[in-house]
């Protein structure tokens, strides 16, 4: 069996950026992606606009041309697809990495397609979009509760509760309201998150002020039933008739997977996987982290725009090690 120089786990923007650097360096690599190409972006809300301008999302120095300064999801999907084609990146789609073990100097990677790969180096670029932060309340498992939001049309004329006040929650509240949903926001803190895009903020503030979107602050959802929800508010417990709950409470990396690899996670609530910030190498020699997974629970630390650099850092380190060995 061939031994790859690098196996890259995850075909998101940063996994692709790692593939480009490996390709440029003439290394023998393979990207393994459990879903479609740039799977997380594919699953973002259909009409979503990035908060970054398009040049900040570029990888491999390929210009990202978009109609407006901040591109839409569809433009990003097209961009990354063209980049993958341009570099003829070696990527297997719909192949999930299940286990990675190391014997001596060689990693063995086993996948959902019952295949086995051997590699000298592994890059983990699995992002954080697969695991929603759960509320752990009764009724969360009901089909009307969604942790991913796609298209506002679906919620026309429905009574929708949006949990949270992040960018995702605010976008969902505004979009569904404009498609005729009766929207109630349930927000743990006493105001809308300060991270909400500055050009969206006045819109949500004014909709709440005029009462077209109802918001309960310092409040939390305590239970969900088929036709209603229960909310704990500063004025006591209330129940509201309800059709759908959009629990957009954020996401977290697959820590279970990271732990099975033997990675050390920080002892605080952030669970940041141990890595060298210059080389991106983890506590396991020749196993690297790239992209937003590096932030652990702090999913606001890394973006495409500031983590695409990881690809160069890692491949530079691999090449320098190869030279000295
Ligand atoms: C709604 C939203 C909007 C955002 N907007 C911006 C923005 O404007 N600008 C910006 O810079 N960043 C933005 N971000 C953050 C950043 O874009 C994303 O988190 C980005 O996708 C990170 O790239 P990544 O390659 O590190 O991770 P991902 O894109 O999440 O890629 C990880 C990939 O790994 C795959 N994978 C996971 N586990 C396995 C496995 N075991 N085997 C094989 N494959 C696996 C996943 O399917 C996924 O395709 C946004 C994030 C969200 C959620």
Automatic annotation (TrEMBL):
Superkingdom as given in the UniProt entry: Bacteria
Record keywords: Flavoprotein, Oxidoreductase
Keyword check for RNA-binding: no
InterPro entries documented for this protein: Bdr, FAD/NAD-bd_sf, Ferredoxin-NADP_redctase_2
Listed PANTHER family: THIOREDOXIN REDUCTASE 1-RELATED-RELATED
Name recorded for this polypeptide: YpdA family putative bacillithiol disulfide reductase
């Amino acid at each position: 069996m061939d031994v790859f120089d690098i196996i890259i786990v995850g075909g998101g923007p940063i996994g692709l950026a790692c593939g480009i650097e490996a390709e440029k360096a003439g290394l023998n690599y393979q990207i393994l992606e459990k879903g479609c190409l740039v799977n997380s972006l594919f699953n973002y809300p259909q009409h979503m606009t990035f908060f970054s301008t398009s040049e900040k999302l570029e990888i491999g120095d390929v210009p990202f041309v978009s109609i407006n300064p901040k591109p839409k999801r569809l433009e990003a999907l097209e961009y990354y697809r063209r980049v993958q084609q341009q570099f003829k990146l070696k990527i297997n789609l719909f192949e999930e990495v299940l286990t990675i073990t190391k014997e001596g100097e060689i990693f063995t990677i086993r996948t959902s397609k019952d295949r086995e790969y051997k590699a000298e180096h592994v890059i983990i670029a699995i992002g954080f979009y697969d695991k929603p932060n759960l509320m752990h309340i009764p009724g969360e498992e009901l089909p009307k509760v969604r942790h991913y939001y796609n298209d506002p049309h679906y919620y026309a004329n429905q009574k929708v509760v949006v949990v949270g006040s992040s960018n995702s929650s605010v976008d969902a509240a505004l979009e569904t309201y404009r498609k005729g949903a009766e929207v109630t926001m349930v927000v743990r803190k006493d105001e809308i998150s300060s991270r909400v895009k500055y050009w969206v903020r006045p819109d949500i503030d004014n909709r709440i002020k005029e009462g077209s979107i109802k918001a309960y602050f310092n409040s939390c959802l305590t239970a969900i039933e088929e036709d209603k929800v229960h909310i704990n508010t500063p004025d006591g417990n209330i129940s509201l008739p309800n059709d759908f709950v959009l629990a957009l409470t954020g996401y977290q990396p697959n820590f279970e997977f990271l732990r099975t690899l033997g990675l050390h996670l920080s002892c605080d609530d952030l669970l940041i996987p141990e890595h060298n910030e210059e080389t991106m190498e983890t506590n396991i020699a020749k196993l690297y982290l790239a992209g937003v997974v590096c932030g652990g629970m702090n999913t606001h630390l890394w973006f495409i725009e500031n983590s695409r650099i990881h690809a160069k850092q890692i491949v530079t380190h691999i090449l320098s090690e190869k030279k000295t060995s």
